[in-house]
Every structure is written in C-alpha cells, then in structure tokens.
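Here comes just one.
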Amino acid sequence: MFEILDKQFLTPNICKMTVSAPMIAKAALPGQFLIVRNDEKGERIPLTISDYDSEKGTVTIVTQSIGASTIKINSREKGERFADVVGPLGNPSEFIKWTPQQIQSSRFVFLAGGVGSAPVYPQAKWLKEHGADVTVILGARTKDLLIYTDELASVSDHLEICTDDGSYGFQGNIPAMLEYLVKEKGREYSQCVAIGPMIMMKFSVLMAQKLGLPVVVSLNTLMVDGTGMCGACRVTVDGKTRFACVDGPEFDGTKVDFDEAMRRQKQYDSK
C-alpha cells in the first residue's frame, strides 16, 4: 500500500508522483485533497489530488520542495512506500452537483498559476469528459517554471500560456491574459476557477469581477493539519470564519478576505 509507482521532477524543486492508493482513487473527486506522511515520525502534509485512476487504483500528487517535510517526500524513490496516505478529504468542486444540462452549457476558464496547475488538471479533465467547454490559462514567471502544459492541453478546448517575462506565450500575468481574451479576442465564459499563489488568486478575482464573471478559488495552500483541529487555515469568507480544510478548500473568490489570508501565510515565513 502507498507504493510510489512513478516519479518525475517537473522542475528542479517540483516533483510529480503516482502512488498506489486503491481506496482513495475509488472515492476521489475533483477539488479534494489527501494527506501524506513520509515515515512513522513524519509530519502530516496536505496535498491536492492532481489526478486519480479508479481502475488502476492510483493517485497523483505534485509536491514543491519548500520545507524539511516536502523535501523528504520528494527525496523518496520509485518502489518505496509512504507511511500513510489519507483521503480523499475536503469538499469536491461544486460543479460535481450540477446537472448534465448545466455542465454542457457552461464555458469554464481555469486560471492556473505555478503548482496550482496540477490540481486544475483533474477538474478540467472531469468537466471535459462531461461535455463542458474548457479553457485553461496557464501562467508562470518564466518559461522554465511552466508545468503540466501537455496534460492541460489534452483536457481543454483552448490552452493559453502566459509568462511574466514574455519568454513563452503571452507576455503578462494571468489576470492580464484573461482580460485580453475577453476584451480583445471576444471570448465568453460563464465560470472562472483560479488556483495558484494567493496573490495571483486575489488579482484574478478582481479581474473576474471587473469582467462580470463568477469566480471560485482554492485555498489549499493555507492548510497544515488538514482536519480542522489546528486552526491554521482559518479564513474569513463572507464575513464569517471558515476552515479551508473542512469547509473548502474551494470558496466563492469574491467573498474571501485575501489580505487576511496572506497575513496568515506570512506567519510561517523564515525570520
């Protein structure tokens, strides 16, 4: 159980792993996450499910080496086993509850920034399989930091790529690309989903509001324990305290207090 079946570094510090977890794979839905414990004394690390295959009994995780625990996870090799993988946790994406008619008449635009590109994949894949029109805007600071380009191209009607420095695709950030597609290219969307760094989601929400688009964000980056007991992922949504791990991780972006959420993230910065 929990054997690493495949491992690939997408960038020098971002690693993609396929893990044997039949029960999780059978129950998983887009938007959910799992918790990985590297060894018996390891820290609990919440990671968004980046893909799942119920027939093969596998789940895919994408981990960025940031602290000691994520570095240890990414140091594991194919054939080794994690001590624990628990899930699926959190609420699935809201569109799972939509009728076939609602899905097939919808035009989704996903805003995927950095490591957030990986959890966009199962959502776009599910929607495409159920007949929705899917556009993905994939962005990074520079070409070398782009990940999941082939995967996202395979599950979207349109993949639009942008880089801050113009080294690949549209020169500009993700909100600017969204504005360009709507105002200059005449694209029409009915739902926006933004997943990525907190600052990127904040300005993506502001742009979506400017364009009159409903927008959902994923606050998975706030989670620590993943069960609601530690309180680290407290966030104000529509004036009320919510927990990203048990009430989310997805919320209406227009109701999230991003400034508070970013202040909360800073408490984990190295001094």
